[in-house]
Write a structure and sequence with these properties.
Layout (H helix, E strand, L loop, with lengths): L6 E5 H4 L8 E2 L10 E2 L1 H9 L5 H5 L3 E5 H11 L13 E3 L6 E3 L4 E3 L14 E2 L3 E4 L3 E11 L6 E10 L1 H9 L12 E4 L14 E5 L8 E4 L5 H8 L3 H11 L4
Parallel strand pairs: 7-11
Antiparallel strand pairs: 1-4, 2-3, 5-6, 8-9, 9-10, 10-11, 12-13, 13-14
Length: about 250
């Protein structure tokens, strides 16, 4: 599914779609994907003072690719604050103006940072934006995997497109074949206040089927947002975002 990748070895408990089983890995390996095992297998290792022959005989190991390794690491890491700990948070939604309880996992922006409605040649709807027939933007999602879960925290943001890609995507808005379009280069065009400057981060728009917004994949970098898309966002960080952005009580 992920194409050519590095190999990695994990206990069979981690090789499935497991969640919150714990993620332990070798501290002496030079590999970026050291052998990993769950908390139950860690009990076996500890009871035998290491990975002795007897301990290894009690654990089943499976080969997976490095992309699956990163996904299982995010799902099974046990953060100090869990998503369940956010279950009592009470907050008011800015869209429906109703009070809700529990984690809020979606935040969005209605227009790109560069939107200017004073020019007659600028246009904006829920999915597309053009500014002075010169700059073009599409609305999409940056999905951040949440540590210890199989869920994502979603930023609804805008990304720039070339004129050619913008026109092609707009023309195929209702065309099922749009999923075959290659990924489109984009500059992040939303200033997300919860991070250092996010404008003009490099990313790619992965086009979804009609009715679904593109998924933005940030280019790998040391920016906190790119790191969270790669390594996961903690429920504690989600709580901080909620408390800073939403009326709560």
């Amino acid at each position: 599914m992920h194409g050519e990748r590095h190999q990695a070895f994990v206990c069979t408990h981690l090789s499935a779609n497991s969640v919150a089983l714990g993620f332990n890995c070798s501290e002496v390996s030079d590999s970026p994907y050291p052998d990993a095992w769950c908390e139950n297998c860690e009990l076996i290792r500890s009871a035998h003072d290491g990975w002795t022959d007897e301990a290894q005989s009690l654990v089943k190991i499976q080969l997976i690719c490095s992309s699956c390794y990163e996904q299982t690491r995010v799902r099974n890491t046990r953060p100090a604050v869990t998503l369940d700990d956010l279950g009592t948070l009470r907050w008011k939604c800015g869209s429906c103006d109703e009070w809700h309880t529990g984690p809020c996992l979606d935040f969005g922006y209605g227009e790109p940072y560069y939107w200017n409605d004073e020019n007659e040649t600028s246009h904006l709807n829920e999915d597309f934006c053009s500014v002075e027939d010169r700059d073009f933007f599409v609305r999409g999602l940056i999905k951040l995997p949440i540590l210890g879960t199989d869920q994502t925290f979603n930023w609804g943001v805008w990304g720039s497109l070339s004129r050619e890609n913008f026109q092609r995507l707009a023309e195929m808005d209702d065309d099922e074949r749009r999923v075959d379009l290659p990924d489109m280069f984009s500059w992040l065009s939303t200033q997300i206040a919860d991070y250092p400057d996010t404008l003009s981060l490099k990313m790619y728009a992965h086009i979804q089927k009609p009715g679904m917004r593109p998924l933005f994949h940030l280019e790998e970098s040391d920016h906190p947002l790119a790191i969270e898309q790669r390594n996961g966002i903690s429920p504690e960080k989600i709580r901080e975002i909620m408390l800073s952005r939403l009326p709560n009580g």
